[in-house]
Structure formats: structure tokens, C-alpha cells
Amino acid sequence: AQSVTQLDSQVPVFEEAPVELRCNYSSSVSVYLFWYVQYPNQGLQLLLKYLSGSTLVKGINGFEAEFNKSQTSFHLRKPSVHISDTAEYFCAVSFSGGYQKVTFGTGTKLQVIP
Amino acid sequence: DTAVSQTPKYLVTQMGNDKSIKCEQNLGHDTMYWYKQDSKKFLKIMFSYNNKELIINETVPNRFSPKSPDKAHLNLHINSLELGDSAVYFCASSRRETEAFFGQGTRLTVV
Lengths: 114, 111
Hints:
The structure holds two protein chains of two kinds. Chain A has strands spanning 3-5, 10-14, 19-21, 24-26, 31-38, 44-50, 56-58, 64-68, 73-78, 87-95, 103-104, 108-113.
């Protein structure tokens, strides 16, 4: 069975500092990986996705993530955060083949400190 | 031109009542989902439909009954509401093996 682990429930970071949000997954088959962002009282918005190809994936709002198959990780990074990046971030995984079931991690609250 | 829209956005009701949440997508996707997000922000899949056929039912109480009249709609009916049903319910849709697009959520409060 597939699963996703986000070890950090909260990550405080100063404005303009870099940030990395960690995500590890477990799956016995090939996976697709996603990062979503949820702003307060809103739905989930896709930040970026890895389906195949280049392991470094660039997304919206200056975020990027790297798929590391050997470490089963898909960490999200941004070189310089803004106040507006304060939100909940979810890593998600689905497996290739068959019908899609997207499994979410428990989320990481990114708090950008002015 | 909202991609995935669900109504209502807020729903406050008493225990024991029956309520429905509607979802529509205009993206031409084959697969639609219902997710439940609890107060700790945990997102759990409840149901998934592909071409109007139920393909995932994740041990949800049978008080919850999804209905998909066509590929673009997936409604959620809840009978005999309980306090523990209070949560935010998200509808989503996707094409096979791609990302899911989410609605804005329905915040259900049972009092």
C-alpha cells in the first residue's frame, strides 16, 4: 500500500530565507507525486507534480521539488519565501496503472515570519 | 468558469438531519472524488467514481451515499448526521494518472 509521510507539522521561517518541506513516500510500484498548497479557508491548489522525466520539477510561485527514487523522497524547496507563502502544504502520491487514488500526507504548516 | 464547483460552501445543521452537497466539474474529467478534511487538516479519500461507476469506497459509514448522475456531477448525501461528521468536504476531479483538481470545499457543522 502507498503512504506519504510529512515529518514536519510546522515549519517557521523568516521572510526571504530559504525553506525545505520534507516528504517521503512508500510504494511498491511506480508513483506520481504532487505538492498542493492550501491557503486558509480555501481549497487545494496544485503547486507542482512529478509524473515522469526530469527529477527536478519546477512549479508555481517559485517552488521546486526533486524526486529522489533511492531515498523515496520528494522534498519541496523555495530559495526565498514571502509572507504570502504562509499556508498548509500537502505532499501527495498516486501510483501508476489502474485507477487513481491520491493519498495525502498530514500536511506541513509553513509560517513565514516578517 | 470555475473548474470544480461545490455547493453549498457552508452548511450548519442539527444532529439527525439529512443533507446533500453537490459537485460539478467542467473539465471533462472521467474521475471524481470526495475527500474529508478534519479539524487537524488530515485529508482522507471517501469515494471515487470513474465514468459514473463507484471504484473506491474507503470504509465510510453507509450513512454517506454518493451519487453520480453523469460524468460531470458527483453529489454526496448524508443521512442522520452526527457531531463527528463536522468537517470540510472537498470534491475533486482528474483525468487518469494526472493531478486532481479540487473544489473550494463545503464546511459542514453539525450542532
